[in-house]
Write a structure and sequence with these properties.
Blueprint lengths: L1 H26 L15 E2 L23 E7 L6 E7 L11 E7 L6 H8 L1 H8 L2 E5 L20 H19 L2 E11 L1 H12 L6 E5 L10 H8 L9 H4 L23 E6 L8 H14 L2 E2 L3 E4 L6 E8 L2 E9 L6 E2 L8 E2 L5 H15 L1
Parallel strand pairs: 4-5, 4-6, 6-7, 7-8, 8-12, 13-14
Antiparallel strand pairs: 1-10, 2-3, 3-5, 9-11, 10-11, 11-12
Helix pairs in contact: 1-6, 4-5
Length: 368
């Protein structure tokens, strides 16, 4: 009976993702980037209608402005996972200097290289001097290349999260990684896995960013994942965390966790016309995270830079700092906001998600 249930689960997942990918093809289009003569100031605006779009091309191998790609394999409870590390060019480290690390988790139908190309995060890494880790999901583990954030009933989700953390630890042993400045971000299934990792290991991450994802405890299987993606399930944290009371937190130093850590600060990005993952998941996750941190929502602001899509911004504050930031992008489908033009899972007309992610992460370094 367990074997039959397992086969049914994978079959249901396959059919459901095929339907969602078709919905994505209708909802997501890549458009030509907007060329502005000069940077525009942020201003309050009214909501805009979605722009016209066209069919995107598959992502190509990223071409960073120099820098190095280092490949590796990390073993863990879920088996081995390949990864690639981007190292900025011309690093001249001081004695004992270590660099921040950003873990970037790709979505379904993507690879780590695809996400690097779409997000152009390596350009920021070269300018701001941080390392970027791109783990790779194995097709044997998921036929669609999705991180199994939803397979909590079987334990596969937790095993993959532990394996990804093992990749971080492996890098820290071989490269100048500052373990007190590690953040994780992801798109779609990668975003859902990112918040699951942050929920399971809150003392290991100084910040987390979820782009177009689902709260980590909202699904337990393939069937419930589809309902969660469509916004038809209540958002939850993993059971062990949902039952615990929040206590004071500090970032991990040298890999050693403090006793009882709070969830790390969270940035949520989501398009309000996402046809694959309902935007209802964005507000639900932000409110869930804020409640666990004892944070209250401020007034909703609508911001826009130049001709890019507007975004509705809600910040949740606790103890004088923003611990959760919700950014709902007007007219954005299931795509990386402000991504490279003419690539899949990318909308260059949206606000620059990569810049927003890094600004949010870097702010945590100063507020520790």
């Amino acid at each position: 009976m367990p074997r039959r249930s397992r086969l049914f689960s994978m079959s249901a997942l396959t059919r459901a993702y095929q339907r969602n990918l078709k919905a994505f093809a209708r909802a997501t289009r890549a458009v030509q980037p907007v060329r502005a003569k000069a940077p525009a100031k942020l201003r309050v605006v009214a909501a805009q209608k979605p722009s016209s779009t066209r069919t995107p091309r598959p992502a190509r191998k990223p071409v960073p402005a120099s820098g190095k790609w280092l490949a590796g394999i990390a073993p863990g409870p879920a088996g081995a996972r390949r990864f690639q590390l981007y190292t900025p060019p011309g690093l001249a480290l001081a004695v004992d200097e270590k660099l921040p690390l950003l873990v970037m988790l790709h979505g379904c139908g993507q690879t780590g290289r695809d996400l690097a190309a779409v997000s152009r995060m390596n350009r920021l890494a070269a300018r701001e001097r941080f390392l970027v880790l791109y783990p790779e999901q194995e097709r044997m583990a998921n036929a669609h290349g999705c991180w199994n954030w939803f397979e909590r009933r079987s334990g596969k989700a937790e095993a993959e999260a532990a394996t990804l953390l093992a990749a971080v630890d492996q890098l820290a042993r071989r490269h100048p990684v500052d373990l007190s400045r590690v953040a994780v971000a992801g798109l779609s299934a990668g975003g859902s896995m990112a918040v699951l990792m942050a929920a399971l290991y809150p003392d290991r991450f100084c910040a987390v960013a979820m782009h177009s994802g689902v709260a980590p405890g909202t699904a337990e299987s393939a069937a419930t994942a589809i309902a969660a993606m469509h916004g038809r399930r209540d958002a939850h944290l993993p059971d062990a965390l949902a039952a615990g009371a929040p206590v004071e937190s500090v970032a991990a130093v040298g890999g050693k966790s403090p006793t009882g850590s709070l969830l790390p600060p969270l940035l949520v990005l989501h398009g309000d016309v996402d046809g694959v993952v309902s935007v209802r998941n964005a507000a639900a996750t932000a409110q869930l995270w804020a409640q666990a941190l004892g944070a209250r929502a401020g007034a909703i602001r609508t911001l826009q830079r130049g001709q890019r899509h507007a975004m509705r911004v809600t910040e949740f504050r606790a103890r004088g700092r923003t611990v959760v930031a919700l950014r709902e992008v007007v007219g954005l489908a299931h795509a990386w906001s402000g991504g490279a033009a003419q690539l899949s899972y990318s909308d260059p007309q949206g606000p620059d998600a990569s810049a927003l992610v890094w600004a949010f992460v870097a702010r945590q370094f100063k507020e520790k």
